[in-house]
Amino acid sequence: MENKNLELFANTIRCLSIDMVNAANSGHQGAPLGFADVMSVLFNGAMNFNPGCENRDRFILSIGHASAMLYSSLFLSGKTSLTIGDLKSFRKIGSVCQGHPEINKDLGIEMTTGALGQGIATAVGFAIALKKKHIKSKVFVVVGDGDLMEGVSHEAMTLASKLNLDNLIVLFDDNDICIDGNASEFTTCNIERFKAYGFDIFKSDGHDYDQIKNTIAQAKSSNRPSFISFKTKIGKFTEKEGTNKCHGKFVSLEEAKAIRTKLGLPEEPFSIPTEFMKSNTTKQISKTDIDFTELRKVINEIKVGFINNPEEKSTRYFAGKVFEKLSEKFKWLIGGSADLSSSNCTISSNSKAITKESFEGNYIHYGVREHVMGCIMNGLAIEGFIPYGGTFLVFSDYMRPAIRNAALMGCSPIFVLTHDSIAVGEDGATHQPVEHINSLRLIPNLNVFRPSCDIEVAECIELAIMNRATPSAILLSRNNVKNIRITHFDDNLSSKGAYLLSDFLYNGNEQLTIFATGSEVSLAYELKESLESYDIRIVSAPCLEIFNKQPGSYKSDILWFRKLFIEAGNTDLLYKYKNRDDDKVIGISSFGESGTAKNLFEKFRIDAKSIIEDHFECDISKRDRINVYLK
Question: Active-site residue 370, yes or no?
Answer without folding.
Answer: yes
